[in-house]
């Protein structure tokens, strides 16, 4: 249930924000909370990809709620109600912070003005307004048009409150969940949102999106069980997160999608389209320039504007997303006041590119927001579906060849630290040697995991000066020779005389300098290195086809890992169309540990099981870990206000920010 920018927003599509779980110009994973659910195309992850992949439940992977660590979230307590009773919210970590009947979230400004145009940037292009399917490249921000059954709080972890649903109920064994819709919920054409819409939306989602079908594979059936009630029945009991994750499904209008367009042609949700869709959310599409820009206008009579989960949010009259195919042009456009807000993921640009007059005059504000718990692994990921990467010694050798200290100093202005966990900077990260409950869990799969996990903590190879680099390359060559390779004629070859080659598949020119720094060390080992820079469409197609040697991307995590771990590391996902198992991991020990994470009975068991999973993933050297940064670097034209105290686990942009007319007048941007 994760995932993964710094996820500012309850609603997705905040363009300069990067897709959940994606990596950006320096391989930084932007950790938002439930990227897997909302990223309706592949969870694709590169700089050229648009921001539509933001989850409707995007939020920072977070530290525990201060009121809930160690609380066993049993059915009777997990929402502050007895099992089977109707409840207003759901939490995996104890009782929800906000009681039934609460008026608004503590962190919002209930009196925030509704005004202004927010301009954001998106990398790449788009050719569709249908982001349910895996075809095409959907536009950013489409989820602004829709509602979900539940909505998260940005000052809690793994907690949701009713949006389309006014109440939710589930039995003590978590074998099903029933949602009751609000009678006042309606589409923008005035038609009510119905239980039939919910059933149809779920069925179409899993029919047209393999990744979602895999994620929701434990939903055995969905049925209308009352005038405004829908019940999801699961094929198993005991999975605490299943009642929550179905509440995050986007609900779409059955009557519109099964109708005809202006030309009389029957609509088809399985196909790409540029027809403006009908929604029920706080915004609707205003204007589309295919591949170049899309704008959304606030719905003045939005049915849910006064709900507790929406008070103080959706404050901009219009949100516009401008597309750029070149990151340098995109940055210069910001300097030229062509859009308002950006997240800077380049250490070099952060250090050198913001010394321009508007910054000195205070018209542009540079600010870093802390990532409370990044929970991410960003890495060079070899494709284990290719035989040359299947030997762990080869993968470890590639790690020895990476001169992180030199790269950090030369390219990144010493801003980064090396990543050492798949759950970096959270309590879920393994450390030291296993003990207690974690050791018990590892012993239960002892014959299926590397022996090193019991005796040796994971460490990346040392990194430092020239002597260290040379020693690392000697160790790398030793490992490669042990794996059956040798150097002949200056080329690393296997026993059959076949050369060892690596093609790095990239979708952003900004990654080239990273690979080019890595390349000489690999070549000193006799490895032939090529860099393949492709456009977004080619990259997506090759990722879908698993046609790559090495990519640079990653996985974001939340504090409450669950079903998405199957998608990341599970054997079944390795060959699943659209999964996030980029490495192609197939390991029975990891499969068992994933199930122990999913079926953990309480917080202590969840943490211990995740420690064990993390430790075993690291021990296999599936990836070459890259780097991490503790803050979100932002630049904005000084036209906006935000609550004085931001929520604990997100800086809330743009959802709880607003247009400040006085600041805009001084900055020179009244609109």
Task: Draw up the topology in text.
Elements: H1 35-38, E1 89-91, E2 117-123, E3 147-148, E4 150-152, E5 159-162, E6 165-169, E7 176-181, H2 195-208, H3 210-215, E8 219-226, E9 229-234, H4 242-245, E10 250-251, H5 254-257, E11 283-289, E12 293-298, E13 318-324, H6 327-335, E14 341-343, H7 347-352, H8 357-360, E15 364-370, E16 376-382, H9 392-400, H10 404-411, E17 417-418, H11 436-444, H12 452-455, H13 466-482, E18 486-488, E19 491-493, E20 501-506, H14 512-524, E21 528-533, H15 536-544, E22 550-556, H16 564-569, H17 571-574, H18 588-598, H19 603-619, E23 624-625, E24 627-628, E25 631-637, E26 640-641, E27 658-659, H20 661-667
Parallel strand pairs: 2-13, 20-21
Antiparallel strand pairs: 1-5, 3-10, 4-5, 6-7, 7-9, 8-9, 11-12, 12-13, 14-25, 15-25, 16-22, 16-23, 17-24, 18-19, 26-27
Helix pairs in contact: 9-13, 11-19, 18-19
Keywords: Signal
InterPro entries: Peptide/Ni-bd, SBP_5, SBP_5_dom, TAT_signal
Subcellular location: Periplasm
């Amino acid at each position: 249930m994760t995932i993964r920018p710094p996820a500012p927003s309850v609603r997705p599509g905040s363009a300069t924000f990067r897709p959940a779980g994606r990596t950006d110009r320096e391989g930084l994973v932007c950790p938002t909370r439930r990227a897997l659910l909302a990223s309706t195309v592949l969870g694709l992850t590169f700089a050229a990809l648009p921001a539509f992949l933001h989850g409707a439940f995007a939020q920072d992977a977070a530290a525990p709620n201060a009121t809930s660590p160690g609380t066993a979230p049993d059915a009777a307590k997990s929402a502050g109600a007895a099992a089977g009773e109707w409840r207003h919210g759901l939490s995996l970590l104890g009782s929800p912070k906000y009681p039934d009947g609460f008026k608004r979230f503590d962190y919002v400004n209930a009196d925030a003005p509704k005004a202004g145009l927010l301009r954001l940037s998106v990398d790449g292009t788009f050719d569709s307004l249908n982001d349910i399917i895996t075809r095409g490249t959907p536009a950013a921000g489409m989820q602004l048009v829709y509602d979900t059954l539940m909505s998260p709080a940005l000052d809690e972890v793994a907690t949701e409150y009713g949006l389309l649903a006014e109440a939710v109920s589930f039995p003590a064994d978590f074998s099903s969940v029933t949602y009751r819709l609000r009678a006042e919920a309606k589409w923008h054409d005035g038609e009510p949102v119905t239980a039939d819409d919910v059933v149809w939306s779920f069925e179409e989602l899993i029919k047209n999106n393999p990744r979602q079908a895999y994620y929701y594979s434990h939903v055995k059936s969905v049925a209308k069980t009352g005038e405004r009630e829908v019940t999801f029945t699961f094929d198993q009991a005991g999975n605490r997160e299943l009642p929550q994750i179905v509440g995050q499904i986007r609900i779409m209008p059955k009557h519109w999608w099964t109708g005809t367009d202006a030309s009389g042609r029957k609509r088809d949700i399985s196909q790409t389209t540029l027809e403006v869709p009908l929604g029920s959310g706080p915004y609707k599409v205003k204007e589309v320039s295919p591949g170049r820009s899309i704008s959304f206008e606030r719905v003045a009579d939005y049915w849910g504007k006064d709900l507790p989960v929406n008070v103080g949010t959706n404050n901009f009259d219009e949100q516009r997303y401008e597309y750029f195919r070149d990151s340098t042009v995109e940055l210069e456009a910001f300097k030229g006041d062509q859009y308002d807000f950006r997240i800077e993921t380049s250490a070099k640009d952060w250090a050198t590119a913001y010394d321009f007059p508007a910054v000195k005059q205070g018209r542009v504000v540079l600010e870093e927001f802390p990532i409370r718990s990044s929970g991410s692994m960003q890495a060079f990921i070899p494709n284990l579906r290719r035989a040359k990467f299947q030997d762990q010694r080869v993968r470890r050798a590639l790690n020895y060849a990476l001169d992180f200290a030199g790269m950090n100093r030369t390219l990144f202005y010493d801003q980064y630290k090396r990543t050492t966990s798949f759950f970096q900077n959270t309590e879920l990260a393994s450390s030291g040697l296993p003990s207690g409950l974690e050791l018990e869990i590892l012993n239960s799969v002892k014959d299926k995991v590397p022996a090193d996990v019991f005796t040796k903590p994971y460490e990346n190879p040392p990194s430092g000066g020239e002597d260290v680099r040379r020693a690392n390359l000697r160790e790398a060559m030793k490992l490669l020779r042990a794996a059956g390779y040798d150097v002949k004629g200056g080329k690393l070859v296997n026993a059959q005389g076949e050369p060892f080659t690596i093609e790095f598949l990239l979708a952003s020119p900004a990654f080239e300098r990273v690979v080019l720094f890595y390349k000489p060390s690999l070549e000193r080992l006799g490895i032939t290195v090529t860099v393949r820079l492709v456009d977004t469409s080619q990259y997506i197609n090759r990722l879908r086809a698993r046609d790559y040697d090495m990519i640079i991307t990653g996985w974001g995590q939340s504090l409450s890992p669950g079903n998405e771990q199957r998608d990341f590391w599970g054997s079944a996902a390795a060959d699943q169309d659209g999964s996030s198992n980029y490495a192609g991991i197939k390991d029975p020990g990891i499969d068992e540990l994933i199930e122990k994470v999913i079926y953990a009975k309480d917080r202590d068991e969840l943490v211990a099981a995740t420690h064990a999973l993390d430790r075993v993933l690291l021990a296999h050297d599936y990836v070459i870990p890259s780097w991490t940064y503790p803050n979100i670097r932002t630049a904005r034209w000084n036209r906006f206000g935000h609550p004085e105290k931001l929520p604990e686990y997100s800086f809330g942009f743009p959802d709880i920010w607003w247009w400040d007319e006085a600041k805009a007048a001084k900055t020179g941007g009244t609109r």
